[in-house]
Design goal:
The protein has about 375 residues and is an alpha/beta fold. The chain is about 30% helix and about 20% strand. It has 9 helices and 16 strands. A hairpin with a 4-residue loop joins strand 10 and strand 11. Helix 6 packs across helix 7 and helix 7 crosses helix 9. The model has no long low-confidence stretch (mean pLDDT about 95).
Length: about 375
């Protein structure tokens, strides 16, 4: 274990719901120095500033500040691409919340800006760096389940309007269960089983409007639905593994598992990829219960921002960071190709690829080499 790397100054842009989770992690990430928070709605930034004791600054002022090393882009998905390109050209590295982009064209513009400026992009979800997905990956890589054959992944939900304070964007272009939640499952599948070469799928949107329920913040508000709210996809990995993905905002209740991986010698029960921890289970014979497996890899007690800390460390060490632009771009292309397959009712090739992120050894911390 190496010595802690030097601190990198970061500025958060976007003070919505998810920013709280990043802010809560910072005390455990000593190589990050938060210097300001910003939001297009200045009142949101002022509220976070008052709660956390961090200066609130206008977005334009932050982008023009050469002392900021990394912009943490926590804006709504529709803003991810434009703000990232702007920040890169202003000389900053960027770490952004998922999804990487809402379209392949935006993702391509981001990659081009990163290449031309020499600035890095890192992208959530970094949940795959926690003990759950990393332990599953270690079991796969070590041959414990034999040769992987297939995987299934399910995200069955009634939607977010019952709990989210501002749910409209989940049903607008750039939202929906595939871009919002499928990105966790796809990133986990690529991390464990490698890149994807072809997809096919079907989708539906049974309602054109949704009404926010009485117990929610925006009770009675009518939400326009512009995206498929149920998506079923079949994915062919470059390795030959076949994965099935179902994501839904139309499921009142479900008993389906999150992810299962099937090998020639055993099967894995993989925990929720939207969480960092929870136990992996292994099943070695038909009809038996899955047995919990001891944690063998991953950042312990991790939270959102651990991928950001790893990127800051990697910048200082001139090494690749785990939640790379190439990974984010590949998952974005996979999601766009799924949408195209649904529209065209055919199998569609995925043209990009990526390396699997470097595994996280047990006991590692993201700020150390």
């Amino acid at each position: 274990m190496g010595e802690p790397m030097s601190k990198h100054t970061i500025a958060i842009i976007g003070c919505g719901h998810i920013s709280t989770q990043y802010l809560d992690s910072l005390s455990r990430l000593p190589n990050l120095d938060l210097v300001s928070v910003s939001d297009a709605a200045e009142a949101a930034a002022e509220l976070v500033s008052a709660e956390r004791g961090v200066p609130a600054r206008p977005v334009a002022e932050v982008l023009a500040d050469p002392e900021v090393d990394i912009i943490v882009n926590l804006t709504p998905p529709q803003v991810h691409g434009p703000l990232t390109v702007q920040a890169l050209h202003a000389g900053h590295h960027v770490y952004l919340e998922k999804p990487f982009a809402v379209s392949l064209a935006e993702a391509e513009a981001m990659m081009a800006a990163s290449a031309s400026t020499g600035r890095r992009i890192g992208s959530a979800p970094d949940t795959v760096l926690g003990t759950g997905i990393q332990t599953a990956r270690q079991l796969i890589d070590s041959g414990t389940i034999g040769t992987p054959i297939a995987a299934t992944a399910f995200m069955m939900s009634p939607g977010h309007e019952s709990w989210h304070p501002n749910p409209a964007f989940y049903y607008a272009a750039g939202g929906g269960p595939l871009l919002d939640m499928g990105v966790y499952y796809l990133t986990a599948l690529v991390t464990m089983l490698g890149p994807i070469s072809a997809v096919t799928g079907m989708g539906s949107r049974m309602r054109t409007e949704r009404v926010v329920p009485p117990e929610a913040t925006r009770a009675g508000e009518v939400l326009q639905v512009d995206v498929d709210t149920y998506v079923s996809a079949v994915l062919r990995h470059t390795s030959g593994v076949i994965s099935t993905l179902i994501v839904s905002f139309d499921s009142i209740a479900s008993r389906l598992p999150r992810i299962e991986i099937y090998g020639t010698e055993a099967s894995l029960d993989v925990p929720d990829p939207n969480q960092f921890t929870n136990a992996v289970g292994i099943g070695r014979s038909r009809g038996t219960e899955f047995t919990p497996v001891e944690t063998s890899a991953g950042y312990a007690q991790a939270g959102r921002g651990y991928g950001l800390s790893d990127m800051a460390r990697a910048i200082g060490a001139n090494e690749p960071h785990r939640q790379s632009a190439e990974l984010g771009f590949h998952v974005t292309e996979v999601m766009e190709r799924i949408a195209k397959a649904i529209e065209q009712r055919t199998e569609v090739a995925v043209h990009s690829t990526c390396e699997r992120p470097a595994p996280v050894p047990r006991g590692a911390t993201p700020d150390q080499a």
